[in-house]
Write a structure and sequence with these properties.
The complex is a heterodimer.
Chain A lengths: L3 E6 L2 E6 L4 H7 L8 E4 L2 E3 L14 E9 L2
Parallel strand pairs in A: 1-5
Antiparallel strand pairs in A: 1-2, 3-4, 3-5
Chain B lengths: L5 E3 L2 E3 L3 E3 L7 H11 L3 E8 L18 E4 L7 H15 L3 E4 L12 H13 L3 E6 L3 H9 L6 E2 L13 H10 L6 E3 L5 H9 L4 E4 L1 H4 L4 H21 L20
Classes of the chains: A mainly beta, B alpha/beta.
Chain lengths: 70, 257
Amino acid sequence: MSQRLLIQINGEALEVKENISLPELIASLKLKPEQVAIELNEEVVRHAQWESTTLEEADKVEIVHFVGGG
Amino acid sequence: MQTDRFEIGGRSFTSRLIIGTGKYRTFDEMKTAHRASGAEMVTVAVRRVPLDRSSESFLDHLDPALTILPNTAGCYTAEEAIRTARLAREALGTDLLKLEVIGDQTTLFPDNEHTLEAARVLVREGFVVLPYFTDDLIMAKKLLDAGCPAIMPLAAPIGSGLGVQNPANLRIMREQLPNATIIVDAGVGTASDAAIAMELGADAVLMNTAIAEAKDSAKMAEAMKLAIEAGRLAYVAGRMPKRLYASASSPTLGIVR
């Protein structure tokens, strides 16, 4: 049975499965990878590194996209 | 005006109007206004993706020919702005950045100190930093020295529609920094405001609310396009001096009496 991790995504506490990769996380949130950018513990994770980035307990993730603005 | 192009960050534009994408009632209205404006560059904001519902891609609603200028709106510290900038660059693959670090929620006036700090870091990281700041000559010089290729003094508070509140400041800035690229950003309300900014020597004007909150945004977008062209032409033409007293336009000799 896989462990669960408690992490923060966009300021909300969420449980995810252990060893989940960033692409899997994005897919599970029904987001399109090419439309978002990810920050892990206040550092941007480049798209090329998503696959090789695994999450750990208490990680803080920010997932952003673009909206209208001045 | 074919050869009077506006250059920024290695890119060349015909239009001297940069517009925002916020506050429109519908995406269709936004697209129509954008087309009417002739703008070639638009700003966008960076925000957390909502996790509780699906959201369509905002970028899909923009004309693909437009150059996108991400902003750091909503940031109150240099650190927040730097993080936002890096995320925007990763998502868009552009080095262009409108740097906005706000000091106060009511006035949305920029925190010049944090803005300068963020500008220095981001210029070092290779960003093309276009900083929004108060119309302060000393601050302008510091931002240019920090490596910003252009500076963006405000005309009046964001979304206020008051127009250029301190024309003397902008004139001084243009005279003292003759080679700087100056983009008036924020506070423009109607066409004459944009024309005045250009007549004072601005290289371009950035606006959002003036168009988005007009009753007919497409008409206002067109008005702004024409106003900026007129203001630019008037500036390049070199206006007549102001006089306290009259100077007759018709000859004073040969009058029938």
